[in-house]
Amino acid sequence: MLFYIALASIFTAAVLYPIVAYFKDEKGLRKYPAPSIAAFTPLWQMYHNWKGLKFLAVDRVHRELGDVVRLGPNHVSFSSPRSFRDIYGHGTSIIKDTFYDNQAGGNPNMADATNKATHREKRKNLAFVFSPKQITATEPRVMRIVEKLVRDIKIKAQGGMVSDTDRFPVKDGVFDLRPWLNMFSYDAITDIFWSQSYGFLDRGNDDCMAEAADGTLRKVSAMHTFHTNTGFSVLVGHLSPFWFDLVKNKLLAWTFASKSGPYFTGMARHLATQRLRNPPKEPDLFSNLPTHSSEKRPVPMSRDEILAESSVMLNAGNDTTQSALTNTMYDLALNASKQHRLRDELRRHLDTDQLPIASYEALQHVPYLRAVIDESFRLHPPLGTGVPRLTTEPTVIDGKLIPPGVTVSAQAWSLHRREDLFRDAESWIPERWLPDGDDFSDEERRNLKDYVQPFSQGPRACIGRNLAYMELSICIAALVLAFEWTLPHQGAKLRHHERFNCNPVELPIRARALL
Ligand code: HEM
């Protein structure tokens, strides 16, 4: 009997209710076209999330059905340039969607706090941590880790192993650069933030410790744990909080997919507890957190807050940086003439004692380097997907009146590839970013400034932008000065698998040492 009641409930919730809701159309969303079953159920989005290619599916839907489409029963996606500012810009009443509440699991961090006042408070706490002065102070740490990466790639270029524990071998002169760039981004953020560098580049693998709330330690693979967690959380994140909790924390609680979330939190917990136990001699970014009471902040951050913010730093500080590095190195390997131009310009601007690892200050005098990085951001934004927001009152988005309580989004992947904004938009052309790039109009340069949004915009824009540019500039310049990069098959495509970020799957490559 219980079985039949359960079956009837599932049928009502999954089939009957969506059909009735569609025809009742209380929010007036039926006028917007939708692909296949998307207007009835979140399953359309979940299917494309599961395949890891939702950003391409959404891009295709906009090209076929227009600038405003319905991606779910309560989700409207926009693709016009104007809609980005209307959704993400300053001065709107739009907030982050319940999708983020699902991710927060009751202990929100700065990135997933949906309440505006809570977010403002958290952002205030971290604004000083990410001030230009503090970021500049981390530069020697970044340079040291880049040095290790260059050392490892030299070994890889000769077909060797970094150590006995190296898990990423070379085959016929070809190796996958992606995990090395991810190990770099992990080593860098753990050093910069907690002075507890993971040391992945020394060992050639990504094993690290996760600490449970009761102090139990477990060895986990950082990359696999993080990617499993984000892939799974995004897949079920479209469900209502009730279904999300039921599926993730109860029905599938026994799976690694479900446990990977607590394991990743455990990685952050271990870093934070180690850092609190062993304060470093040199200040790191953690030193700027209000962990002790002061005149300005009499009540210091609680342990839960420290854990929540540590978790978001480990998350945001590793994966987007890795994706941006991998995308850029692919673009350079595919476009040999541009790679040579970048190397020539770097050699022309830098003193010999700055080769191959130069200061960020020196690199800012090489406009072609920034053009290369920005053009890769345009063509493959690490966060390609339309991050979901929620209307809290009737809101006009690109001329359409959207009622309160509707999920809205617009994706950078599609915006960055609009032919009406960028000439030859599907091609990777760093020259379009140069102030004197004769082939491109002033209007296109304005469009680049206004509509290339890899770090989003408005009050929830990336707080780590300056750190990201510093890491990318020092790392890419060193890799291009120290090695010549070629793809094993000219014209080989770079595949992406989208979780929350749009991750490159692998980058098989050859490196020839130049120094
Ligand atoms: C290439 C590198 C990076 C890219 C492309 C990037 C991109 C983004 C984007 C698009 C968002 C908005 C996400 C949303 O609305 O859900 C964001 C938010 C955020 N990013 Fe980054 N990010 C990068 C690096 C970093 C780094 C290195 C850190 C810090 C270690 C960081 C910390 C954050 C935080 C804390 C937020 C949340 C901000 C808030 O809600 O107020 N990011 N990032």
From TrEMBL:
SUPFAM superfamilies: Cytochrome P450. Heme binds at residue 462. Its cofactor is heme. Keywords: Heme, Iron, Metal-binding, Monooxygenase, Oxidoreductase. Residues 277-300 are annotated as: Disordered. Pfam families: p450. It comes from the Eukaryota. InterPro entries: Cyt_P450, Cyt_P450_CS, Cyt_P450_E_grp-I, Cyt_P450_sf, Cytochrome_P450_monoxygenase. One of its GO terms (molecular function) is iron ion binding. PROSITE patterns: CYTOCHROME_P450 (PS00086). Belongs to the cytochrome P450 family. This is Cytochrome P450. It comes from Coniochaeta ligniaria NRRL 30616.
